[in-house]
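PROTOCOL LOG
Step 1. Enter all chains and additional molecules of the complex.
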Amino acid sequence: MKQQIEINVNGEVQPAIIEPFDTLLHTLRNELHLIGPKQGCDTGGCGCCTVLVNGESRYSCMTYTMTVADAEITTVEGLADGRNLDHIQQAFIDSGAVQCGYCTSGMILATKQLLSINSKPNDAEIRQGLAGNLCRCTGYHKIIEAVKLASGQTTGE
Amino acid sequence: MALTTLQGFSQPNSVEEAVAILQACQDSAMVIGGGTFIHGLVARGLVTDVEQLIDLSRLNLNHMTFDENVIRLGASTSFASLEASAEIQSISLLGALREAIAYPPRQVKNAATIGGGVAASCPYLDMPIAFLALDAMVCATGPDGTREFPIDELFVSLFETNLVPGEIITEIKVPQPSEQSASSFEKMETTANDLSIVSVGVRLSLSGGSQSGARIFVGGGIGEVPFRCCEAEAVLENSELNAEDIKRAATAAKGEIEPFSDHRASAQYRKHITGVLVRRCLARVANQLS
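Step 2. Run joint prediction.
Step 3. Record the structure below.
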C-alpha cells in the first residue's frame, strides 16, 4: 500500500511516495533520483549503498525507509557546497583513490563517519573503519592515503 | 528482493502499544530492532509471509545502567553505543561482549541492537554466544506482564524462541559475580560478510587462586541452538588455569560438540577450529585473571 511521506535528505525536506517494504536505497535512487548510493550486494556487505542517518553511517540497502523517515539523511550529493567539494571528496581525487568509482560514494561517507569519531586514525583504524566497504579496483592503498590526507596527517606531496 | 507481502509498518511509542499491536497481528507480524538481520532473510527468500513490521526503535529501550551486582542493557541498545560506553569498555567481565561487537562493520554497529541479536535465535550470530557466556538474563514483556529468565531458555531452535505471542524482549541483564571474572569471544568466518564457521564465548571466575563456574559456549555451524561445553567446563572446575588444563578443556570442547558439514566447512574442520578458539579464549581470559 503506497503512502506519501516527507523525508529530509541533504538538508531538504522532500515528498516521496513509498511502499512499506521500500528500502532507503530504493527510495533515494528511484523516488528522489539520487544515484550516489549504489546497489551492490543488496544484503549489507559491500558498502557502496552507504549513507549517513543523523550523521551515522548505515547500509541504505538494509534500512527500511519507514524507520528513518524522521531522520536527517546525507548522501554523497549532499557533501559539496555548490561547486566546492567536501575535503574528503577532494582528498580522494588528489590521492587517486578512485578507479571505477562504484564504491567511492560509500567509501567517502564511511570516511566521514570514521573521522567524526576519530579525527586522526592510524592505518589499522582506517582499515577497521572502512571494513564495511569493498573496493575491487584499488587494493585499498590509495583509499587509505586519501583518508590520511583528508585527516591532515599527510600533505599529499 | 523486497518483502512485497508487507502491508503495514508500525512504530509504537511504548512497550504496551507494541505488545498490543503484536497481539492483534498474531503470526503475520515481525518485530525489528535495527533491521540488519531481516534483510538477509528476505534476500534469501526465508521470510515470505510477513504482513506487518513493528519497529521497536521508538520505545526508548536503549538504557545502560551499571549497578554493583547487575548490568542492565536496554534491548534497543546498538552495538555502536555499547562500543562508545566507557563502562562497557572498562569492566573486565564484559570482554566477550566487547570482542563480539568488534566484528561487524560500522554500518551494522550503528543499526544492530542487542535485543535483535538474541531474539533472532540464530546460532550463527555473535550476541547469543557472548550473552550465554555472561550468564545473562532476558526480560520480556507481553500480554501477561513481564518475566525474566536465563538466556539459554530463549533459544528453542533455529529462529524459534520461547517468547509467547505478543511478547517482546525489553532488557538484557548481566549479573556481576562477586569473584574476579573475565570473558572472551572469538569466531572464524570464511569472509568478513559471511556467517561464522564456529564462534566461541568463554567466561572464567577466580576465587582464592582456583577457578569455578566456567562457561564455554560454541555457536556457528554446530546445531540449531548454541552448544554448551559442559565437559570442558568441568575440566576447569577448581583449576589454577595453567596451560595444561586449558589444553585439556579445549580438547574436551572439540570432542563434545557435534558440528555438521556444509559449504562453509566440514564437521572435522569445525571441531578442530573449536579446539583452537576455545584454547585461545581461555588463555586470554586466564591471562587477564592472573
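Step 4. Note key features.
Chain B touches chain A at residues 1-4, 6-9, 11, 32, 35-36, 39-40, 43, 53, 55, 57, 80, 104-108, 110-111, 192-193 (CB under 8 Å).
Chain B has three domains: 8-56, 64-175, 180-289.
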